[in-house]
Amino acid sequence: MTKVLIISVLAVVAVFVLQRVIVRLATKAKMTERVRAEGNPTTAVVLDTYDTGTRVNTIYIMVRLTLRIEEAAGVPGFETTTVVPISPVKLPDFAIGHTIKVRVDPATKDVATDQPVR
Questions:
Q1: At what angle do helices 29-38 and 2-26 cross, to 10 degrees?
Q2: Is 99 within 8 Å of 47 (Cβ atoms)?
């Protein structure tokens, strides 16, 4: 009985660990954290939004955003598409035509929305 209980607990823990790894991969967490820390602040106009149908932590909606990035220090303006986790409460802030805060890596043109994910 004790072995079954230990194996069951280990299996549950393994599922939670795997879920965290998958979430970090799906949200490109390392790249996003790097760009938020080191990227140049600028703004972007939301040109298009698309619900990917994926949810993160059963709360955040993974949304594909097409953005027109405004010129930032060292980076001319450009258009890009990125997928970001957005709280349903914050979805109206990302409507087509809205201006949002972003950060841009001038070397790679990686873009991260400048909002904390809680």
A1: 50
A2: no
User: Within a domain: residue 10?
Assistant: yes
Q: What is the pTM of this model?
A: 0.71
60 has a pLDDT exceeding 60: yes
The 10s digit of each residue's pLDDT in 61-113 is: 999 999 999 987 777 889 999 998 898 999 999 999 999 999 998 888 889 99
Range of the structural domain that residue 68 is part of: 2-113
Q: Which residue in 93, 90, 29, 24 sits closest to 61, CA to CA?
A: 90
Q: Does any domain span residue 22? A: yes
Residue 81 falls within a domain, yes or no?
A: yes
**118 within a domain of the structure (yes/no):** no
Edge-to-edge strand ranges of the sheet holding 78-86: 78-86, 60-69, 40-56, 99-104, 111-113
Determine the average pLDDT of the residues in 38-50: 93
Q: 69 forms bridges with which residues in the sheet?
A: 44, 78
Number of domains in the chain: 1
